[in-house]
Amino acid sequence: MNLNKKQRADLKMKFGGHCAYCGCQLGDKWHADHIEAVKRDIIHVGGGKLISGEMTRPHLDTIENMNPACVPCNSNKSSMSLKAWRSLLVHYRDVQLLRDSTHARHLHRFGLIEIKPDPVVFFFETWRGEE
């Protein structure tokens, strides 16, 4: 769905100009994320991939199925469901961060970062609106 300027502005303000997922303030560069992915056909070409743009679930291409997202969140979420993405974020925290990053392990040893066992809560799940 190609959003017009008003739809895009309204979507950006859905959560007060914040990313629906991490809560950061959105600037000029942000994405209209499909909450449930529309899934696009992918054609593999010479070891790379090319997204054709053809949707396999076009019925999900609606403004009601969109959230404003910062570029890093939308890129990391990709076409995952919220449940799958939440699980991946927990995996990053519980398995990958200290295992795969020598910098994170070092900062953790110095008490400069703390790994919390808290559940992953997306910004939109606690959004109460502007007061």
Account of the 3D structure:
There is one protein chain. The protein is an alpha+beta fold. The chain has one domain. Helices cover 35% and strands 17% of the residues. The chain contains five helices and four strands, in the order αββββαααα. The chain has helices spanning 5-12, 71-77, 82-100, 102-109, 123-126; strands spanning 31-34, 40-45, 48-55, 66-69. The strands form two sheets. It has a two-stranded antiparallel ribbon with strand order 1-4. β2 and β3 (48-55) form a beta hairpin. α3 packs across α4. The longest helix is centred in the last third of the chain and has 19 residues, at 82-100. The two termini are 31 Å apart.
> What general form does the structure show?
globular
**How are the strands of the biggest sheet laid out side by side?**
1-4
Structural class: alpha+beta
Note the gap between the termini: 31 Å
Beta-strand fraction estimate: 15-25%
Q: How many helices in DSSP terms?
A: 5
